[in-house]
Structures are given as C-alpha cells and as structure tokens.
Amino acid sequence: MRVFVLDNNMALPPKSSNESKAEMTVRMFPSDANPVGNVFGGEILKQIDLIAGLVSQRHSRTNTVTASIDRVDFLKPVYVGNALILNARLNYVHHSSMEIEIKVEAEDLMTGIRTLTNTAYVTAVALGPNGKTTEVPPLLLETEEDKQRFADGERRMLQRLRERGKI
User: Fold this and answer.
1) Which helix (H) or strand (E) holds 90?
2) DSSP 3-state of 161
3) pTM given for the model
4) Residue 7 falls within a domain, yes or no?
5) Which of 1, 26, 48, 94 is the most exposed place for a label (fewest CB within 10 A)?
6) Is position 38 within any domain?
7) Which conformational region is residue 77 in: left (phi greater than 0), alpha (psi within -120 to 50 degrees), or beta?
8) Angle at 88 between CA 83 and CA 89, to 5 degrees
C-alpha cells in the first residue's frame, strides 16, 4: 500500500472510493436539446465533467482539472423532460492523477424507467496552490471489485500514456 509523505512529513492516508463517490440528478430542458428534443451530447459531456470534478476534489481535497475524457460511449438518446442521473466513482489513483468512471442513466419521469445512456472515463489531475501537480491520497482497495477496477484503471492509464508517446 502506498502512503505519500508530504514536505512537512505528514503522510497522506489512503481513502476508499466510497469516500468520494457521487450521484447527481439533473432535469433536461428544451435549452439542453436540439429542435426535436434530443439532448445535446455536449450537455451530457458537461455533466460528466462536473461530476468527475466533484469526485476528484472530494478525494484529493485540492483543486483538480480534467486531463482527458475518453471512452465516452453514447448508447441511447436522452430526451427533454428526462432526469439525467450520473453515478461516479474512483477506479484508479496514481501520484497526482485519478481515473473516474461515470455511468449515466436517463429516467423517464412519467414511467420511472431508467435507461443506461452513457459511460465514460475521466482522468483528473490534482493541482497544488502553486498550480503544479500535487500528490493525492492513495486509493484504499477494500474489495476484490476495488482491486479489479484499480488494475483495469492502471491498464487504461498505461494505454493513454502509450498513445501520447509518454511510454
């Protein structure tokens, strides 16, 4: 288990993904959609970015920025009047970066039926007061599922680095 030591010799204790996970519900209005009532993909991306920022700041307790949004899959449409429900959790933590997995559902408020509409992986990076990257607490892996998500996240991070020519 990694424990980071800060300049003042205080270690950052590991934190579980449950400490930072988030759920957000947003109702979709005509201003969020095209003329026939389909919600813009950009509006969904905005909500994905907002919840990823919330999760990364909860974990790091510092300013964070989005480094990448990848594997955004648009599976089903979202319509005006739907509630957009986003669930986000940390999968992987490196030195200053964090991978957040987001699942998006659209709820038809008249029927109560929820449909999985999007999935995404967001990488956020923690910044210290000087605007430079800063260490974040390691991720506490409590279950086998946590360990598997961490390993999968690490593989995705290495793939992203390979694609950018950093490995």
Assistant:
1) strand 83-93
2) helix
3) 0.90
4) no
5) 1
6) yes
7) beta
8) 160
Q: Is the dihedral of CA 54, 56, 59, 60 positive or negative?
A: negative
Residue 12 in any domain: the answer is: no
pLDDT in tens, 31-53: 999 999 999 999 999 999 999 99
Q: Give the total number of structural domains in the chain.
A: 1
> What are the beta bridge partners of residue 115?
106
Domain that holds residue 51: 17-163
pLDDT for 70 equals: 87
Judge contact between 126 and 135, C-beta under 8 A: yes
* Two structure tokens written together for 166: 């950093």
Series of mean pLDDT values for 10-residue runs along the chain (167 residues): 46 92 98 97 98 98 95 94 98 97 98 98 97 96 96 94 83
Asked if residue 6 is part of any domain, the answer here is no
The CATH number of the domain holding residue 23 is 3.10.129.10
